[in-house]
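Onboarding guide, step 5: your first structure request.
Type a short instruction followed by the sequence, for example:

Predict the 3D structure of this protein.
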Amino acid sequence: MINEQKRAKLQELIDQGYDFKFGEYMTNAFGILQKKLGLFIGFFLLYIIVTSVVGSIPFIGQIANSLVIGPAAFAGIFIVCNRIDRGEDARFEDFFKGFDYVSNLAIAALLTSAIALASVAPMVYFAWQYGLVDWYYNLIVDPMSFSAVPDIPFWIFIFILPGIYLSVAYSWVYPFIVFYKLPAWEAMEMSRQLITKKWFTYFGYSLVMGIIAVSGVLLFGIGVIFTIPLIAIAPYTAFADVTELNSEMEDDITDHLIV
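The system replies with structure tokens like these:
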């Protein structure tokens, strides 16, 4: 569990704010990817294969991907990023160390998903009232029956804003669980409160990194295996600097050496 000194330091960041080094975090993300490009590509391809196979299992597959495999995979990526960031040797098996935290990660994934869905429930309700849900359902069932999109008032989309806010604010939940050993709810709140201090800046950072990642599709689809890992690496570089993660970990090592 996190000690009181670390907790106080995180609270200080929440109370007083911090500098968000947009360009530096982007550079660091590219640097980490470059150092172990083959490792990240290999894991990314394995992740696609595993989640595709598991996802084909009716009902259970989607739950397993959302609550177990996905969170553990992202946690493993953060662990590998940290090893690279600290100048340590990162191995392929390090990606699977995220499963050491799988129970707490699964709880966090379930809670964040439930809260996010609840936050957009009003929009879903109004979309259903104006026929958008039925239109979308019919389109999925029979793509050839495409019809004009129902007229819906613009104000409905205001209700999606809470979901966007939370999806960004919860970006650091998994690293707080892995590196600070916080329980799910406390990790969620710590992430939400800390990112909220610089929410618009962090949203812009995530948006830019996402655009870069998705742009890999334009390179005949091949570039995506190089750029998509950036989506997972980007939250780590910002998190590590803002929370001074590596200095905290060095303090832990020093404390254990003191007799």
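Each response can be followed by summary notes, for example: The chain has one domain: 4-253.
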